[in-house]
Design brief:
The chain contains seven helices and 13 strands. It is of the alpha+beta class. Strand 12 (196-207) and strand 13 (210-219) form a beta hairpin.
């Protein structure tokens, strides 16, 4: 009898325990209670299966180019990626908990980490403090990646530059363990920022564990053309038109000196806006150098032509020539004084003196006419040389600008963008 009562007592205790546990599960009648139960599991390690590699699905990536630094050749990018993975330990029986989804804090379970392989600075942040867990253990989450990518952008054709730059996205994996990304769709968001625009983005891969986004970039040529190329073209045109100014008087020389100084100041001011050097150095630097050389050569030739129109020579006078010219000047001065003296003591009745005085006056006028004719001849010769130099300058300048424009627009220059992979 005592044994029967003892057995009945243990049976009652067991039934009471089952009833209590059943009531405990039955009392968890809301999502928050279910969430707290999943949080208590503290599954902070990566889900692991027999293959030691867990697949992470990326159904959508929204890519955005924030800026392109042409000095350091860096690209600032922003990526927002939707992540989906399955963790069976986070699932539950819907017959006990009739909920298909529940919200958990993002720091209470394991979440994958994405990084940019060729990024100098990469920061990943969660798009929300919470994530969504389904009843079968599927987790849905979203992250934001800000990356500064080191990309050797081809700037040879600047300001008509365009190039492709890879943004490599990977997760941690080592010796067959870790995570593997499976990409879905890619969307370009707000493709126009600053002087650069994102023409297209494409998901590609070198092999299964090397995935990247190929970003096609091109520069908006309007702003660089107005601020860099157009002023140099206008200054060269103004220098060509300055040949219409006369050689004498010094107006042309002063104007050309002003153009050279203005262009030099223009280069100094815009030095910070010029792109940096890389494997393909910008040809616009050579263009500015050629423009400066043209302006300086034009200024020097104008000065030499001014001397040619005055003295009939391009060389400086020697000391001996100076002394000879000085003696000639003194002789002419003495002759003039004699003529003036003879004129001042003219006697009306002296026919011989009158004829001598008239011969001296005629000689003086003939010498003056000869000097005037010689100066006119120098001026005509200098004008012919000036016209020849102008047409040569005009032809060379026009051919140069046409050739430089073709080179800036069409000449290719290849850059290896995948040197970060070895």
């Amino acid at each position: 009898m005592l044994r029967f009562l003892t057995h009945s007592l243990w049976k009652a205790v067991f039934l009471l325990t089952l009833l209590t546990v059943g009531r405990g599960h039955a009392s968890c009648t809301n999502r928050r209670c279910l969430a707290e139960m999943l949080i208590e599991k503290e599954y902070l390690s990566q889900p692991q299966n027999e293959n030691c590699t867990h697949k992470i699905s990326v159904p959508l990536i929204e890519y955005q180019t924030l800026s392109v630094d042409t000095k350091t050749l860096h690209i600032i990018s922003r990526l927002q990626a939707s992540l989906v993975w399955r963790d069976p330990e986070l699932g539950w029986d819907r017959s006990v908990y009739p909920y298909d989804k529940v919200i958990l804090p993002v720091n209470t379970i394991w979440t994958p980490e994405l990084h940019v392989t060729n990024g100098i600075k990469t920061t990943m942040s969660h798009n929300s403090r919470d994530l969504l867990v389904n009843s079968d253990g599927t987790v849905e989450h979203s992250v934001i990646i800000n990356a500064e990518v080191n990309c050797e952008v081809n700037l040879f054709n600047y300001p008509f530059a365009s190039d492709e730059c890879p943004v490599a996205i990977q997760t941690w994996s080592n010796q067959g363990c870790g995570t593997d990304l499976v990409f879905g769709k890619l969307k370009n968001v707000d493709g126009s920022h600053g002087d650069w625009r994102t023409d297209n983005v494409t998901l590609k891969n070198v092999r299964s564990d090397r995935n990247y986004i190929m970003v096609e970039l091109s520069i908006k040529e309007t702003n660089p053309f107005i601020t860099l190329l157009l002023p140099s073209i206008l200054i060269i045109i103004a220098d060509m038109v300055s040949f219409a100014l006369p050689l004498g008087g010094g107006e042309r020389n002063c104007f050309k000196v002003t153009l050279v100084l203005s262009f030099t100041m223009f280069l100094i001011i815009l030095n910070d806006q010029l792109p940096g050097d890389g494997q393909c150095s910008p040809v616009i630097r050579i263009h500015f150098c050629v423009c400066l050389i043209l302006l300086v050569v034009s200024m020097l030739l104008s000065m030499l032509l001014t001397r040619l129109s005055t003295d009939g020579t391009l060389l400086f006078s020697c000391c001996c020539e100076g002394s000879v010219s000085g003696n000639t000047g003194n002789k002419d001065l003495k002759e003039d004084e004699e003529v003036k003296a003879d004129i001042s003591v003219i006697q009306l009745n002296g026919s011989e003196d009158d004829s001598q005085m008239l011969r001296k006056v005629v000689n003086f006028l003939d010498a003056l006419d000869a000097k005037t004719l010689e100066s006119h001849r120098y001026q005509m010769f200098a004008n012919k040389v000036d016209r020849t130099i102008f047409w040569l300058y005009f032809s060379f300048g026009s051919a140069y600008f046409i050739a430089m424009s073709c080179v800036m627009i069409k000449y290719p220059c290849s850059v290896d963008h995948f040197d970060f992979w070895y």
